[in-house]
Each structure stands twice: as C-alpha cells, then as structure tokens.
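Task 17 of the worksheet. Students: predict the tertiary structure of the chain below and write it out as structure tokens. Keep your answer in the requested format; marks are given for formatting as well as content.
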Amino acid sequence: MYQRVLILYGSPHENGHTRRLLDDYLARAGLTDARRFDCFATPPLPCDDCGHCKTAAGCSKPDLREFYAAFEASDLVVIATPVYNRGFPAPLKALLDRLQVYYNARFARGVKKPIETPRDVVMLLTCGGRDDCTAALTEQLKPALTVTNATLTATQIVCGTDGEPL
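Model answer:
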C-alpha cells in the first residue's frame, strides 16, 4: 500500500471528467490520503534553461520548492489530466519540464540517482476525441520517468468526453 501519494492535477475544471476519473481511481485503489498539486490553480513558471541546475542542486525559481519536496518523498504519483492536442495541457507540461533539475543532476552533475526512492506513476487521461493517444503521452513522459526513479505502472484513458456535459 502506498504511504505518500502525490496527485498532479492537470485539468482547469474542478468538477469535470478528469476529476471524476481521478475520484473513481482513488476510491478503487483505497487511497484516501493524497497531496494534490493543481497545475491550473498554481501554474508553474516555465523552465527557461537558465543553467542553474546544471551546476547546483535545485532550481533558481522558488515557486516549486514544496512540489519538489513532495515529489521526492512520494511513492506514488498520479497524473490526472485531459489531453490537449495529443499532449499535456500547458501548466502540466511546464511542471514536467521543470523536472529538468533531475535530468541535469544526473547528466550535467553526475549524480547517479537524483532521487533515491523509487516511485510508481499512474496516468489517468480524459480525451475529447475518440482517439486513444496513451502511447503519445507515455512517450512524452518517458524522459522524466527515467531520471526520477519512476515507473509507469498503469494508465487509463476515457475517450469521447467532448460530447458529454461537465
């Protein structure tokens, strides 16, 4: 059973299709205590390749300090998001780009495991169209998983939500 669950919520709708999918997953998994990072409520600043994390630990921007701590301590990360143009919504994409601190720790500074604790990742997707684009999003997520000691253990997609009311 997971002890430290972090939800990366990528939907602008508090009570839409993505939220219903997330709530259903949490109930089925018996996960009642989870920390949530809402990418639309607290949009992360984009990575601008300032170079700070190439030479020092952490990010020069202070907006994600609490997120990084929660992410590093988590043993399960649940990514719950709608699909936008076969990709992640901009605020969630910005958050994933900011995982560059771990990439640079590994490849620019030579830290063998930037995050020691392994974590599982579950990706929950909602998609307005009928096209299952799980593979495209999995490919986009792979680099971040590799450098954060994370394994994608499950994905679920609900397609065709454009015709359904929120």
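Marker's comment: The longest strand covers residues 150-159. The CA atoms of residues 12 and 40 lie 6 Å apart.
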